[in-house]
Every structure is written in structure tokens, then in C-alpha cells.
């Protein structure tokens, strides 16, 4: 009987291995929810099964049973409208390919245990920025089947009436090349670029040795500059062109008047404009430029004068913001692209003052840090208190006592403790409780905070909770999707991303993090596409679903940080 069962399992393995080679999406509800990229050999391992599953067996490639368990009691989650049961298989610590078997259903799923399961996904997440470069052809030797002609050189950009003044009247032509397309569209936005650029530079400063070695095969690879920094500079150099050289204010965005159609970049040829200066854009600019100053100081021989240029521009932008401390972005009547509007600038002032103080030591910035201090929350493009905290805490020992006495470390760790506390008891093992637009980036940003908490305290529960966040993104979530294009068994195929939609490839550009489930908009695909009313399941893998399936640079950046940090801290490098 034992031999018969082993032969049965082997037959099931062959069926499963065959089915996993395809790229089709699996629309039925998966009975097993798991990290579809891989589990680290010597780290916690958790998968989830549906409420009705009562036994889980794991077998190796030879059909030997290596693990068996009765799942934990079902836990209901109001965000997903279902109950799941946890299966902790951390004891399985031998690298290999295994199959999870559910004897009651005759269903099985392949899992992998590896020493370095996240190296390739970190590379892909970073290289996604290269694929979204404006003004550059993606050559076959670097882009493979996703090669494409250059689009949007952006050397002829018109000053919109909302941005015009005596020095640059309406219709003035300026040049503003380089940069990344912001999301699924072809426009470029300073506010969203601010947090994105900061997050990538923070990844480099927090894990310098790791990212120095990470080769993602872009044209500049092998130059002696880390690929992460090279890629970030492609956008940073564009951002520097968005400052008005006369007064220091920064244009909010570079955009067409309407979103382009679903065409390739070189086919999108409508006029482009710089639109409106504002407090949010100018402070975001100053913050990232001050941060870049400190990073680039170590690469002066590669980029002579760029570090000092960044600091000069940052201080000039600060001066404009101090003179215009409450100028929100208001969408002009003839502009219909993304707004990124914000009306509360206390967090931007705190973050920017933190970066400028760390770069200059000037009391004027110290005073603003004290004045604008508030407890941090999970960062997003319009809520950046935590970014100032991260930078200050990364230099904590050098800070003056007056800053340390604000409660900087205690308040940050309190936020991390709250997040980790939720994840310990949550049915899906993650901290997220509120599903906003771009919910997957919220999960990644929560993971980033936990990583920083681990660095500050050495508390491995923080690190393991961040790993659990990555597991969620890679498939252990209520939808069952691995949310990073190009990866997973149940993979995302139809992101809202113009190059992916308009090219000749069935598969989307790899390495992009889909926005993820939410109920902010339920009708973007029309009434014929029904979405779950439960926020954690309200996702559809269709190009029309811009609310759940678009990509964005500020979503990919924390994925680069999280997956790279986990790879650096928990795997055998």
C-alpha cells in the first residue's frame, strides 16, 4: 500500500510539473496559497490552504514524503471574506523542488526551496525601470523580445500657461529629456519620482555591498557604478531639468494634455508640456536632490560636480518653497492626466528639512525638523514623514541630541511594532489592513519599514515579518496571483502598461509589480467585468483595470528594496 501511494504521488508530480510549464492564468480559486518564486532554505516558510483542506503532504522529486501536517484552525479575514488555515513547514530546509499534495482533492502544487530565491526577481524589478526609460531605444541585447524604438526625446517641451511667468512665457520651449515613464502612461511626474528615487537611493545606502554586485544587464553595466545608481540617475537627471533656473520652483509634471492611446512610445507624438509649479513638487525635488548629494559624494570621479549641483539645486528649491509654503497643485482645465494632488505639506517640509540638515548641518533646517515633527506612518507618494525618519535614523549616532530627544527612534519602532503585531495574528500573515489604490506597494513599503526596524534593533521578528510581506506579493495572498510580471505559476499577464499592451509579445514586460486589489474603482473595465466586493480579492488581470492592474515606478521601488534586502540579509550570498 505504501508503494502504491508513492506511485500515486509520483504520477501527480508529473501532472503538476507539466501544468506549471505553461503561462496561462488559473482563474479558479486556488486551494493552496504560497510563494510561487521560492522559499529561503534557512528561513521561516508558511503557506495557506482553504478552510476545507484538512491535510497537507509535501513530497520531494523522488516521491518521498518529507513533510505532513494538519493545518492550523481556520482564521476568517473580513478583508477577503474567507477563512484560511496556516501550514508552517519551516523544518523543510533542504534545497530542492517539492510538491504540495492535498490528498482529499487530488490537487498539488510545486514549490521551491532555494538558497537564493529572490536574486532574479530583484534584478527584474530593478530592470523594469530600464524598460520604462523615456527617450532611449531598448536594444535587443538588453531588452530581448521587449526591445523597442526610442520615444519621447523631450527636447521640445512647451511651458503651459499654468507654469508661465515673465522669464518663461506661455509657449516657451525648454528641454527636459531622460527620466522614466511614471506608470502605464507616458507622462513624468515629480511628486511620484521623489519617493521613487529616494527609495532606490536608500536601498543602495542601506545595502551598499549587495547592490554594488547586482548586475542587471543594462547598457551602463560594468562601468564601476552600481547598476541601481546608474538607473536611478537616469531619472534624477531628468528631475533636475524640471526646476525653473530663474526662481528655483519646480514644475509639477511633464505631460501631454490627454493620456495617449495604447500605442508604443515612438508612436505617441502629441505635444508635451511642463505644468504648474507647486509646493509639493518643489519640496520633493529638494528632498531627493539633497539625498542624492550625499550618495553621489562617493562617486565624484564618475560624475564630477554632480553632487554639488544637486545640493545647490536643493537649497534653491527650498528657498522657493519657503516663499510659497502652501501652493497646491490644481489641475488646469485643459489637462486630463494624473494629478498627484496634495494639500498638506507638513510631511514634505519635515522630510526635506531632514535631508538638507543631513547634507548641510544648517540650523534653519534643524528648526523645521523640530517644528514639523510628527509620528510616522507607512509612506506613500503623498505621505512622506517616514522617509525623513529613515534618513535621520540611518545617521542616528551623528544627530544632535535635540533631534534624538524628539522620540525619533521610539516613534519609528512603535510603528514597526504595530505592523509586526498585526502580521503575527493576521489570517494571511501580513500587516496590511486597508486596501488602497496600489495596495501591493503598501505591503512592500510596510516591509521596508520592518527591514529598517530590524537594522536598528536586531529583532529578527521584524525581518521575518518583512519576508512574510514578500511571500504575500509573490502569491500567498487572497487572489492567488504572483503579482510580479514574468514570475509565478498563477501569473499576471495583462498589466495596464502601454508598451506591454501595444507590442507583439503575449507576455508583459517582466519585473513590474501590479497595483493589486482594492475597491477604489469597481467599474474601470465596465459593468460586464464583475469584481469581488471584498477589498483583498477585488482584482482582475485585465489591461482595462487601471485601478488594480496598472504599474507605477513608486510601486516597483519598494519591491526592489524589499526583495533585495531580504536577499542580502537572509540568503547565502
UniProtKB/TrEMBL annotation:
Q: Entry's CDD domains?
A: E_set_Cellulase_N
* Organism in which the protein naturally occurs: Alkalitalea saponilacus
Active-site residues from the entry: 541, 550
The protein's UniProt keywords, in alphabetical order, are: Carbohydrate metabolism, Cellulose degradation, Glycosidase, Hydrolase, Polysaccharide degradation
Q: Where is the Glycoside hydrolase family domain?
A: 119-562
What is the protein named?
Endoglucanase
Show where the Cellulase Ig-like domain sits: 30-105
Signal peptide limits: none
Enumerate the SUPFAM superfamilies for this protein.
E set domains, Six-hairpin glycosidases
Q: Which family does it belong to?
A: Belongs to the glycosyl hydrolase 9 (cellulase E) family.
**The reaction(s) this protein catalyses:** Endohydrolysis of (1->4)-beta-D-glucosidic linkages in cellulose, lichenin and cereal beta-D-glucans
